[in-house]
Amino acid sequence: MKQKAKFILVGLAGLLAGAALTVNLSAIADKEAATALPVAELRAFTDVFARIKNDYVEPVEDKKLITEAITGMLTGLDPHSAYLDAEGFKDLQVGTQGEFGGLGIEVGMEDGFVKVVSPIEDTPAFKAGVKPGDLIIKLDDTPVKGMTLNDAVKRMRGKPGTSIKLTIARKGVAQPIVLTLTRAVIKIRSVKSTLVDPGYGYVRVTQFQEHTGELLAEALNQLYKDNKAPLKGLILDLRNDPGGLLNGAVAVTAAFVKPDSLVVYTEGRTEDAKMRLTASREHYLRPMQADYLKNLPEGVKSVPMVVLVNMGSASASEIVAGALQDHKRAIVMGTRTFGKGSVQTILPIGNGTAIKLTTARYFTPNGRSIQAKGIEPDIVVEDPAMPESENGFGLREADLDRHLVNPVGAEPVPTDKPGDASKTPPADKPGKNGEDKKPVALEPGEIVSKNDFQMNQALNLLKGLQIMQGR
Length: 471
Hints:
By secondary structure, this protein is α+β, with helices and mostly antiparallel strands. It has helices at residues 39-55, 62-75, 86-94, 124-128, 149-156, 212-227, 246-254, 316-326, 388-392, 453-470; strands at 3-9, 15-17, 24-29, 82-84, 99-102, 105-110, 113-119, 135-139, 142-143, 163-169, 177-182, 184-187, 191-197, 200-205, 233-237, 262-268, 275-278, 305-309, 331-334, 342-350, 353-363, 379-380.
């Protein structure tokens, strides 16, 4: 049998404008399934192809027609399957290192427009104020309506230092917002950490990349060194983390649970789509790589933990939150997560191109499907600094057209419609007369703001647990 490379993604909830999907590379045998061809439908396809070639108002190249047909086949399946041309496939591979050029926006498509899932921290989009749920309706002076998602992403990428104008429609804002962003080389250090109080550590994972596990180990070692004593509590912040590399999610979970504990399992139609990934070195290390989790400080696997999540926590971050919740290793706090519980496989098809195909659903250790439901926090704490829509009625997987259904239970009411069952009043309504505050801005050099309401609630909970343990 012919060997073919296959990339496995439990990656970002959409494509990244100026960012790249992170993947796990493995090799599998190409399957030669004996499937009967739908002769009548293929005849209809060739008839349409011939009619376009002969009668369309302008000449059309064969390559363009075939490419558009492949694109249509994949985008018609679900929000995450797609065709990657040579440039898109190359960008995907380059992005596994966490360095890429562009704006730094994770995007999807809705009603023909580009919809922002999440801006990535410390990028031009984030600094310009692009928000989850924004609809990009123009790129420079070109309407987005009618573009494919790949075409829109290509336009947003470009040489660092060059500018692009985004025209954005935002819910609750009457007039379009026009932002001019300067493209940059996006370098993301996926793990940031600090002591938020003596004895209490804070670790933020912004995205799951190739080296996220190693960076987490470094961060934990540094926190214990800076504290000069075992930690009393730890906050793992996965808010607005769009996901990434599956091995990264396994590594982060493995740092905190018992060896060989089940982290996630997947189910699909083919045998290679069925996996059980545990907190064991072969499931998060590259071949011949030293085990960076082996020498973690004593107490890491037992220190009281709170995991912060919100609607921007997707895919790989949901795997971590779900596993730690199922193993009762941490208390999950925040708001319901995005709900991307599917696995995409990147299959090269020749000439430097590939298809991104949804091949499996993944499940938490207790058999919960995250798909279109997300992770429900143990303690619901909304962010009073965010607009109400971003706490309860923002964009999630269940709102995307053609999303896969959840195989083990009813889906929640779509979040952009009234009556969302997950809606919970904020713990503390901000401002005077119900006015919304602006999101808390970080001071230069800050990892997390001291005014971050959800972080402070997590810290208070950990201190309360410490008092109870002392008693």
